[in-house]
Amino acid sequence: MTAVLAERDLGPQVSVRGEAQPGFPTVPNTVAEVEGRTVLWLGPDEWLVLGGVEADYPSAAAAVDVSANRVCFELSGTGVTDVLAQGCALDLDPTAFPAGTCAQTLVGRTQAILFRPELNRFLILVRPSFAPYARAWLADAVAGA
Asked: Is the pLDDT confidence value at 90 over 60?
């Protein structure tokens, strides 16, 4: 099996700022499941909640709907790290970047949030204005792997 590229709908997303909400990850670049939502640590006081809405976090310093702020590409299958290594400087070896981690980085010169939910699966979240370039770059990287 080789790497497969697909576009995925993430559904609602909310950026939460301030103190960590109950269950939120507090270790850098980690992810947690909280009440059926995936929460990505983006900074000491910043999280991205996949499946969340603003009203879910009334005690946060700020909770902003960012559902239209990112396009999600899914890269899955064997060889996914080889594909990403063509344009990502992070060490994606499972010992350095295991399943359940995330990072803000560049992928093919595009600012992205890279999330590894499973060993052979990555979600790559990019701004909509960069999506056509990122899609083309990822498709080319898959073809060349």
From this structure: yes
Res. 83 pLDDT band, cuts 50 70 90: very high
Show the domain range for 20. 13-65
Residues 93 and 125 in one domain: yes
DSSP the chain: ---EEEEE----EEEEESSPPTT---STTBEEEETTEEEEEEETTEEEEET--GGG-TTSSEEEE-TTS-EEEEEESTTHHHHHHTT--S--STTTS-TTEEEEEEETTEEEEEEEEETTEEEEEE-GGGHHHHHHHHHHHHHH-
| In a shared domain, residues 77 and 112 | yes
Same domain, 59 and 75: no
Domain count, the chain: 2
Supply the pTM of this predicted model.
0.94
- pLDDT band at 2; cut points 50, 70, 90: confident
